[in-house]
Design goal:
Layout: H1 2-44, H2 48-73, E1 74-77, E2 81-87, E3 90-95, E4 99-102, E5 109-115, E6 119-129, E7 135-145, H3 150-160, H4 164-183, H5 188-191, H6 201-220, E8 223-233, H7 236-308, H8 310-325, H9 342-346
Antiparallel strand pairs: 1-4, 2-3, 2-5, 6-7, 7-8
Helix pairs in contact: 3-6, 4-6, 7-8
């Protein structure tokens, strides 16, 4: 019984061992076939649509990447503007021609835009002294801009860090100081005057621009296009002095005009008196000539009249003599039988030749 039991257990153990080995073998074979089938499916059985989608995704990504690179390298220069290209903060190029330009992408290179348009800056009212010791209030304006010169643009960036407001502030200060120097070379009458011919505003503006243009260009890289005077004002003391000066000038001008008028009147009066004397002398000469001619003609007429009718002639001459002697208030007491009053009583003789009567003397000429 003991031997049979032992044989049964041994047989059972052998059976278990063989079954276990067989199971291990079958499991290994199964895993091997499974792995082999999976690898074959992914390596050889992917559809063409999947491969096309992958290629399209790579193409789109490449195009986006290329567009981003181009956008980072492109810079647009607008009209009235300059672009300063900096490489690690150091300016390497200045672009002033409008259009598209290229550069290295950030952070290797960057850009700074500089405004090149014309600007104006006013100084406000400045109290300055003139050469003749008077005070005057002057307000000036300055038209300026950054020129299209790379060196000037770089100087502008260094001086004011591309800040136009800061440049305008420093320009106002500089022009205010230049106004003081320029005004000391001019009298007040050169700036404020009722006579336009005596004003020298243009010379004042030109000298002011000459004083600041070179210094501004050298210090700030800015070009001064125009300098002008906006307003003039006079403090109270200067106003009183100016009014007094203008009054004195007007009085001097009035005195000069009066003197010139008197001189012209004297010259006209002298010329008139001279012309009057010449005309009077000429008239007298002409009158004397006419009178002499008339007397000569009258004598000839009397001679002819006497020869034609001596008695009538004697009567007319006697009446002419009376008219010449006797006036409205004349009282004459004479003999009526004496010539020439005898004609008043006797009348013309009845007859007889008149040649026998003595001639009556002619009255003196009037």
């Amino acid at each position: 019984m003991l031997f049979g039991h032992h044989h049964h257990g041994h047989a059972h153990g052998d059976h278990d061992h063989e079954d276990h080995d067989h199971g291990d073998h079958d499991h290994g074979d199964h895993e091997h076939h499974h792995d082999h089938g999976h690898g074959h499916h992914h390596g050889h059985d992917a559809p063409p649509a999947s491969r096309a989608r992958v290629a399209l995704r790579f193409a789109v990504a490449g195009a986006i990447l290329l567009g981003g690179i181009l956008a980072a390298c492109a810079v647009m220069v607008e009209a009235g503007q300059a672009i300063v290209v900096t490489r690690f903060g150091d300016p390497v190029a200045v672009l002033t021609r409008p259009g598209l330009a290229w550069m290295l992408p950030a952070p290797i290179e960057g850009t700074t835009a500089v405004d090149l348009r014309l600007r104006t800056t006013s100084t406000g009212m400045q109290d300055v002294g003139t050469r003749d010791g008077l005070r005057v209030l002057v307000q000036a304006y300055v038209a300026w801009q950054v020129p299209e010169d790379p060196a000037a643009i770089r100087q502008f960036l260094r001086a004011v860090r591309n800040d136009p407001d800061e440049a305008a502030r420093q320009l106002r200060s500089l022009v205010g100081a230049a106004l003081q120097v320029t005004a000391s070379s001019f009298d007040l009458a050169d700036l404020v005057n009722t006579d336009p011919a005596r004003q020298r505003i243009g010379a004042f503006e030109a000298r002011l621009q000459a004083q600041i243009a070179g210094r501004v260009a050298e210090t700030y890289g800015v070009a001064i296009r125009q300098v002008g005077i906006e307003r003039f004002g006079l403090p109270e003391g200067t106003l009183a002095a100016t009014v007094a000066r203008m009054r004195a000038e007007r009085e001097i001008v009035a005195a000069q005009v009066t003197t010139e008028g008197l001189r012209a009147a004297a010259a006209i009066r002298s010329d008139a008196e001279r012309d009057s004397r010449v005309a009077l002398a000429t008239a007298r000469t002409q009158a004397a000539g006419i009178e002499a001619a008339s007397q000569t003609e009258a004598a000839a007429i009397r001679a002819r009249a006497y020869q034609g009718d001596p008695q009538l002639y004697m009567l007319i001459r006697s009446l002419d003599t009376l008219a010449a002697i006797v006036g409205p208030n004349t009282r004459v007491v004479l003999r009526t039988d004496a010539a020439p009053f005898r004609a008043l009583i006797e009348g013309p003789p009845a007859g007889g030749p008149a040649a026998t009567a003595p001639p009556i003397p002619e009255p003196p000429p009037k």
